[in-house]
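Protocol step 6 of 9: fold each sequence in the batch and record its structure tokens directly after the sequence line. For illustration, a two-sequence batch is reproduced in full.

Sequence one:
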Amino acid sequence: MPSPHPDHPMPAAAYRAVDARVHLASELTRGPWDMGHQHAGPPVALVCRAIEAAAHEHGLTHIARLTANILRPVPIGELIVEVMSDYVGRNAGHFSAHLLQPGGKEIGRFTALAQRETPLELPTNLAGHPLPQAPRSPADSDAAQFPFGHDHIGYGDLVETRNAAGHFWHGPCAVWFRMRHPLVEGEVPSPYQCVAVAADSGNGVSGVLDFRQWLFVNADLTINFLRRPVGEWICLEARTCLGPAGTGLAESALYDEEGLVGRATQSLAVRSR
């Protein structure tokens, strides 16, 4: 596929590791709201990566929940991730993390629940099983493009998207996401990281307001996983609901090609531009 920005070399990844704690963001993290700020998906995935590493040290390999509280916009620059083990037991561990700028300015706070995975044979014919499927497979879905940022390298270049149902910014919508570039240069992102990159887009793909006239920004994201995702493709089946006083909620069912993997929610602040 030819580059949509032939005059600008495409970065190799969303981030380049400076050391174990510090990563430098590339233009691939640029979001839709401000040219100097990141889309929240990549930094949430960067923190998820650090929490996964901390949990794996205790044999906890499933991220059951990840909650991000974005305290202020995330600048495109160096980021520092610090992870704390709040409590680690035999089958579950609670972790927290801080996302910082150089100098210690805090950008985000995170909590996560990690679990030990154990082989289990479930009864057959369980209600609600097999798990629900996305409306269409990636192979049967049409190529789609985010309706922003075409003149600049950004998040829309980091991910490939395909419409499984509905259309961007026209209400309830289902969109498949696949990362075109690594999260961290030289690494293959984990399935949890791929979900985190995509899940923060629920309010965008299901937006009901004109992006040119309205802001509908989220300051948090919670992802609950019922099982480990598999494969490259992640589908968000998203819906936005708005309240009468500048508040709202975006909800997304999350799928891989085998079916439902979890759900994500975002609290929205709605403002006129």
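Sequence two, same batch, same settings:
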Amino acid sequence: MNLIEFPPRFQYLIDPRQTKEALLAFRDQPIIGLDTETFWDFRTRQNRLSLLQLAAPTGEVLVIDGLSAGIDEVRELVAQPEAMMAAHNAGFDDNVLRGSGFEVAGMVDTLRLARRTLKLASFSLSSVSHHLFDLPLDKTYQRSDWSRRPLSRQQLIYAALDAVIALRVFQELTGILEREGRLENELKRARIKTPAEQAEERELREAKRRTIVASMRPLTADERAVFDQLSSWRDQRAKSERLPVYMICPDRTLSELAMQRPRSLDQLQKIYGLGATRIAKYGDQILENLHGNADLRSA
């Protein structure tokens, strides 16, 4: 059943003062639907922001002109991690906003959520909207000229509707995931990471690569003693949980633990085979076994 108003009611904003006032309704919103319209700038050879659309659960919908001074008023909202924003194929919008000088935080991709929640032939916004709300979207205006001014009324309606649909898709999909008990994990998967977080992940992958290279050498006698101690602990856990030993920790993980001797849960992340789930379950026990070794205490 279609519960979405069409055409949506919205404000088209080009004045900074009006934009700032309209954004007051978006403070402390639990979720904000977001979309952008862009055009190709042949001078800079990149997509340029034409419109930024925001939709709030309370019904406010803003279409903010990206070619006017009013867009600067949105920067503070977009930069707040607590201001969760839902966009379909959010990586594109994230890149566009960052290219326009925005510091983006709190962006969640409804495309990723849809792929993890629904069984569809296509996960485009139109297909997801058709499936959830019986409302297919006319994407004709997606390819219209977003650089020209004035924009037509139909272009503005199209732009506003996409933000509304992104919001409603988020609400519907998170409702499904919450009922299935999967919401927290899937929201983490769907969040767009900041450049700093991406750099941290790259550093972590590089650290793991280095430990893999180091683990190719034979263990010293001291490291072999630590390996054997960890292996004994692993055998006990596997027997207790009725699991194969490799599902507790593979041999390569034990070798790296013996070589690297991590001293904290954070340092365990750099060890091959120790993801968040294993660290949460076994991390304290692994550290206890390592720190219980006399040679380690004196290291």
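Proceed to step 7 once all outputs are recorded. Observation for sequence two: The radius of gyration is 25 Å.
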